[in-house]
Amino acid sequence: MNAMNPEGYVTADGRKIGGVLMEMKNITLRFGGVKAITDISFDIREGEIRAIIGPNGAGKSSMLNVISGFYVPQEGEVWFHGKKRAPMKPYQVAQQGIARTFQNIALFEGMSVLDNIMTGRLTLMKSGLMDQAMWWGRAQREETEHREKVEKIIDFLEIQHIRKTPVGRLPYGLKKRVELARALAAEPKLLLLDEPMAGMNVEEKEDMCRFILDVNDEFGTTITLIEHDMGVVMDLSDRVVVMDYGKKIGDGPPDEVRSNPDVINAYLGVSHD
Amino acid sequence: MAATDGLNSIPALLDRNARLFGDRPAWREKEFGIWQCWTWAEGAAEIRAIALGFLALGLNRGDHVAVIGRNRPSLYWSMVAAQMCGAVPVPLYQDAVAEEMAYVLDHCGARFVVCGDQEQVDKVLEIQDRLSNVEQIIYVDKRGMRKYDHSHMNALADVEAEGKAGHYRFDAELETRIAELDYDSTCVMLYTSGTTGKPKGVVLSNRNIIETSKNSSDFDKLRPGDDVLAYLPMAWVGDFIFSVGQAMWTGFCVNCPESAATMMTDLREIGPTYFFAPPRVFEGQLTQVMIRMEDAGRLKKRMFDHYMAVARRVGPAILDGKPVSTADRLAYWIGDKLVYGPLKNTLGFSRVRVGYTAGEAIGPEIFDFYRSLGINLKQLYGQTEASVFITQQPDGQVRSDTVGVPSPGVEVRIAENGEVFYRSPGTFMSYYKNPESTASTKDAEGWVATGDAGFFEEATGHLRIIDRAKDVGKMADGSLFAPKYVENKLKFYPNILEAVVFGNGRDRCTAFINIDLTAVGNWAERNNIAYSSYQELAGHPRVYEAIKAHVEEVNRSVAEDPMLSGCQVHRFCILHKELDADDGEMTRTRKVRRNIIEQKYADLIAGLYDGADSVYTETEVTYEDGRKGAIRATVRMMDAATVAGQRRAA
């Protein structure tokens, strides 16, 4: 495979990866005097599963927030769909086609699974407040359409049995799945997953891996994920960015990254003698 | 046979239903949160398209088509489509691991395998290099299948589309194949679960399935407009009879749940009128109800307790149409409005007209609970080789301890040794590629051995199954000896943990009893009886008195069956140690090993029969760490009163 080919490449298992979807150019992010990210550049290709790894405090989640547009870096440029992205208002952030899940699950605990997933489609709904309140005509038709889309996702993620269950009553692994469902409901071009496997047992991890691969395969969604489980990262991802202390120390296919001495040092430590 | 008017195959029945009930619902499946529905006409069109597609793929007469997956209309359709092509559907257990599947697929030589989803396809692919016979894999759910090598693989939807597109080429061939089907051609092949030895392929003809479906549908007055929930494994003969045979014969609707996990919700939504479940499903639901009632408010709890008491008293009688006083009827009517109705609705049983349970013994209290609510729950006795039905309970003659009268068209006889034999229109053709087993199970006149021992109650004509035939023996006077039957009755008392009954070839029965230390210990505490060990408690005179009362009660109950009255326990002793798997006295699944116990405690058995008051004995025991030790004890023998046989005048 040739990951540097601007036209894209073909993976070992025969998936076609397209051109550049998003490019980060020399990103630097500061919180006051603290440099969270220092001069990082990398790209995300269309249809790719791209992992960001690194030890705790390396700046991974900050990076994800830069990608989503939630943080605006002090230096550097973000190019999305071949255009330089200007700082955005929150509603614009939501409408650009990037969805995400959170490290600490952020669902509405008192609402049912179905309603939670429906909220994922909010930005796609067109009927106004009055229509919704009257619940007549367009609003009703629209709800039916959106419900259909949501049901397909429920079927896809095999959560039919908890459709009407309040999220607060669900075990952790299922909540993670519901969060993924909500992100998918927005029909994103780019899906950001912040530690999708954290705190899961082996079986739940296997399930989640399968769902991530299926999402990528079935919907062609580009996925960027942060994960600590190296086995998962190496199995899932096409290319890996490695960060340490806010700097990029490695970038490439999993095998290449695994044998990179800087990466080994960052993860296992170096002797200071 | 005139009774079925030339409707001598499932495809013929389908054709009739499409003409007669064209716009009535035939299959429903919950998908995307909505019950999708196909009428008989729509379903018949789908089935025909699949059959044409099968022909396009080169399905031959006599081929076997394996079907693996959860209950879905498309899989039922595939089975009927295979029949149309003159092939034989073979449904497999979807939870079987690849190895088990390999045996069956190899044995039946299936050329086509229809899989529900990727999981099943993966299993077949895993074993495919060892199976030269599998040529085509067809799958229903497209999810995750995109990257597979499709040179010998097709989505069912594509097969159907191809069938529709190519119908000019294959219509004539399909008509020929359908016309060739007759009453004696094979309808389906079902593999027995194979708890003993390798699974056997039971070949059932159209006659078997259609006659059985007709008789059993008439028996319970099933009709178009009935609803069943198809949730039990498709490989099980019961599902084939309920969801294909009877559904096709009467034209009722088969409802498939969304997934195994949503079955209870789907049950509530559909509210079937005809329902089958193994005892564990009923047990599970009852436990749920009881747990939730514990959490209910005090008023609701009291209302529930009060009206459940009313229901237990008069419910079954009302259900059976027996005379009940007006006051009781009124109380039951109020209870129905306040408790039973809402409860049945929650359970999904509001509309159940006929419910069946079978497979294992159901606890009388569970059985009575459902019947007292007004749910017509009945028992049946059957097996794959009989196309399910051997005996079943008619409405109004339902009890928890019988399995009913012979089903219509079924002859049942009890052999000398108590084994149950039957002969019926449903009796299987043969075991596939296994003439030896066929010959040893089915004799030249068509009688089939069930392997179970039982007897008919003289007063009611109901069959009662008592034990596996190989455990049943004879007393010295020639009467029946069924140890498990008596042991089960004894173990019904909480105080008795285990019981072993002796008497094979002897003139009377005796028993070893193991007390339940938790139950008896609890009783001892409440009655200020001091004890320091199991052995001491087991030998306590008051414990002996209590156990004696239990044994005598069991004797009275056993005496009510003239056939088994010889099995009354004349003398018993309470063992000085608990029977234990570590000592080889029981299996790991807690089944007593009769022979080993008989040898090990030969001195005690001798004492029971020679009239001694007590016997001194030393028993070797194995401790958990493997060391051996010995327990010394003097074990008391006690007489128990028995009832003279034939007490019940007819």
Write down the CATH topology of the domain at 1-88 and 222-273 in chain A: Rossmann fold
Percent strand of chain B: 15-25%
Mean pLDDT rating of chain A: 87
Q: Supply the number of structural domains of chain B.
A: 3
So what's the CATH class of the largest domain in chain B? Alpha Beta
Domain AMP-dependent synthetase/ligase (chain B): 15-432
GO molecular function, one term (chain B): long-chain fatty acid-CoA ligase activity
Organism (chain B): Gemmobacter lutimaris
Keywords (chain B): Fatty acid metabolism, Ligase, Lipid metabolism
What does this structure look like?
- The complex is a heterodimer of chains A (273) and B (650).
- Chain A is an alpha/beta fold.
- Chain A has a domain at 1-88 and 222-273: Rossmann fold (3-Layer(aba) Sandwich), CATH 3.40.50.300.
- Chain A is 36% helix and 25% strand.
- Chain A has ten helices and twelve strands.
- In chain A, the strands form three sheets. A six-stranded mixed sheet of chain A has the order 8-9-10-5-11-12, sandwiched between helices. Chain A has a four-stranded antiparallel sheet with strand order 4-3-6-7, with helices on one face.
- In chain A, helix 3 (113-119) runs parallel beside helix 6.
- Chain A starts with 8 loop residues before the first strand and ends in a 5-residue tail after the last helix.
- The mean pLDDT of chain A is 87.
- Chain B has three domains: 2-197 and 235-243, ANL, N-terminal domain (Rossmann fold); 383-470, Luciferase, domain 3 (Roll); 472-639, ANL, C-terminal domain (GMP Synthetase, Chain A, domain 3, 2-Layer Sandwich).
- Helices cover 40% and strands 22% of the residues of chain B.
- Chain B has a five-stranded parallel sheet, with helices on both faces. Chain B has a five-stranded mixed sheet with strand order 12-13-14-15-16.
- The model of chain B is unreliable at 646-650 (pLDDT under 50).
- At the A-B interface, helix 5 and helix 7 of A face loops of B.
